[in-house]
UniProtKB/TrEMBL annotation:
Pfam families: Tyrosinase. This is Tyrosinase-like protein orsC. Keywords: Metal-binding, Oxidoreductase. Coiled coil: none annotated.
């Protein structure tokens, strides 16, 4: 597996050292707590100024500390999407990112989440991404394109953006990694699969309603949490519903991150994390995670060999944090990192 990081040994983390996180609550979205998002934005900008810590043997293009997260996500993409470890991996990766905001950049809050159930009709009005000084930057400049074939099968028409971010704190931000297999028609091919080739360019976005309006609904939230005995009791069905049942239903947590409201830079799972909105989105997307206490799925997406995810599998985290055994992270309400209570 050439893409895989070098195997790492995982030392046990003392249980008690993690307890401090138990009552850490993900903050309300920007609309309710603008101050917290503004502080988070300042910390993110700090992450773009510190040097990368990733090993250049697999993350040659990583330049700044922020890049270490998309670099790891790119390197691991084939092992963490449509797989049995999907929820646990993304939950832990989001936590390591939040921890870096706090420990390296002086942030004293938690990763705010993007509440999907507001502004679905017009994401450009969401204070989180409306281009105001306290937002995470606005939409991209309008660039006419032919839309996106998300996940290779879900067609999303062109939205009102598509180009470089025009307004707000991240206007003209340079990102260094990706795109890989960009689904947005007309986008250059980008860099080879799974590689972290240096490819500096502006951060592009296309905030549109084509996926948010039909999919970001309370009906879908209920479907994956309390809806129907099958969905809420079977981890396999739950995961499938959460990640989206192509072509038209479900939350589409990760492909949605890569396709729907943002990340026109990528329009692909691989490098969706180059956009800082990725973390706000995942903080929301992992909300129903505690429903899933089991592990079911394969180690690779649509793996014909049916090599199944094991609880003893190691989650490879690169320079973002300590690699951990999956089983040690499963208790989302107990003594593991990423134990959150959501405030509404
Ligand atoms: Cu992902």
């Amino acid at each position: 597996m050439a893409l895989r990081l070098a195997a790492s040994t995982t030392a046990a983390v003392p249980h008690d050292s993690l307890r401090m996180l138990h009552d850490r609550a993900m903050a309300n979205p920007m609309a309710a707590r603008g101050g917290q998002t503004a502080l988070a934005r300042t910390a993110v900008q700090c992450m773009f100024m510190l040097p990368s810590q990733s090993d250049k043997s697999w993350a040659a293009g990583a330049r700044v500390r922020y890049d270490d997260w998309p670099a790891t996500h790119i390197n691991q993409t084939r092992f963490i999407h449509n797989t049995g470890n999907f929820l646990t991996y993304h939950r832990y990766l989001t936590w390591t990112y939040e921890r870096a905001l706090r420990e390296a950049c002086g942030y004293n809050g938690t990763q705010p989440y993007w509440k999907w159930f507001k502004y679905q009709a017009d994401p450009t009005k969401n204070p989180l991404m409306d281009g105001s000084d306290t937002s995470m930057g606005g939409n991209g400049a309008y660039v006419e394109h032919n839309g996106t074939l998300a996940a290779g099968i879900v067609y999303l028409p062109s939205g009102p953006g598509g180009g470089c971010i025009e307004r707000g704190p991240f206007a003209n931000l340079t990102v260094n990694l990706g795109p890989i297999n960009p689904a947005m028609r007309g986008m250059p091919a980008g860099v080879p699969d799974g590689t972290n080739t240096h490819n500096p360019r502006c951060l592009r976005r296309d905030l549109s309603t084509h996926a948010s309006a039909p999919w970001h609904t309370y009906a879908n939230l209920l479907n994956v949490t309390t809806g129907g005995p099958v969905v809420s009791s079977d981890v396999s069905v739950f995961q499938t519903e959460l990640q989206g049942r192509p072509p038209d239903t479900g939350f589409r947590v990760c492909t949605q991150a890569a396709t729907t409201p943002s990340a026109a830079t990528t329009r692909t799972n691989f490098s969706s994390a180059v956009d800082p909105l990725f973390w706000f989105h995942h903080a929301m997307g992992l909300h129903p995670g505690p429903v899933a206490r089991g592990v079911m799925g394969t180690r690779l997406a649509r793996d014909a060999s049916l090599s199944y995810t094991q609880r003893s599998d190691v989650l490879e985290m690169g320079a973002t944090g300590q690699s951990r055994v999956l089983e040690d992270l499963l208790d989302t309400m107990g003594g593991t990192p990423a134990c959150y209570i959501y405030e509404y």
